[in-house]
Design a protein that fits this description.
This protein is an alpha+beta fold. The chain has a single domain, classed as 2-Layer Sandwich (Alpha-D-Glucose-1,6-Bisphosphate, Chain A, domain 4). About 30% of the residues lie in helices and about 40% in strands. The protein contains 3 helices and 7 strands, in the order βααββββββα. It has a 7-stranded antiparallel beta sheet, with helices on one face. The radius of gyration is 16 Å and the shape is globular. The termini are far apart.
Length: about 170
């Protein structure tokens, strides 16, 4: 087993929101935490960020628990070209068991009629967690199978939640 695992997942989807509105929703971490729902096993404390858009160079932090294990996520916006591109780098550290993960998420947004065509890319780097050998081995086997689908579902869910927040249903 290697000490780090790197994986890139890409997806493209249509949003009913125009690029300007979608960008504004994606780039506001305080408001986004309110409408971009996490899986039920993740509990987040309020995001530590100033109100408004987080543009290039902005930093913010999230804290919470995942299945009862505390985590801290430190984010930095690495690129913001409203309304076309938004890129965010994050590092998530868990108190125990789960791997530390560094990710880069990129949204490239193009006009598509009244809505948007969104190209999404996430590159993940993970360092194995501190769990037992069996848990680390099981994670190493399952992660390549489960991560791509989970990332794509999360991306598409984010677009649907953004549309719902804007009062648009498809």
């Amino acid at each position: 087993m290697s000490d780090q695992r790197r994986r890139t997942v890409e997806d493209t989807a249509v949003s009913l929101l125009n690029p300007e509105r979608l960008f504004d929703l994606l780039a506001n971490p305080v408001e986004r935490q309110r409408w971009d729902l996490c899986p039920p096993y993740i509990m987040q404390e309020p995001v530590e960020a100033p109100p408004g858009l987080a543009l290039a160079g902005a930093r913010y932090r999230v804290r919470g628990t995942a299945r009862g294990i505390a985590f801290t996520g430190n984010m930095v916006v690495t690129a913001a070209d409203p309304p076309r591109r938004y890129e965010l780098r994050s590092e998530t550290t868990f108190a125990r068991a789960y791997p530390t993960a560094t990710s880069v998420e990129e949204y490239r947004i193009e006009p598509d009629g009244a809505g948007s065509l969104v190209h999404y890319r996430m590159t993940l780097n993970r360092t194995p967690g501190t769990g037992t050998f069996l848990m680390r081995a099981l994670s190493a086997l399952l992660e390549p199978l489960l991560t791509p689908g989970a990332v794509k579902r999360n991306f598409r869910g984010t677009l649907r939640y953004a549309e719902k927040e804007a009062g648009i249903t498809g």
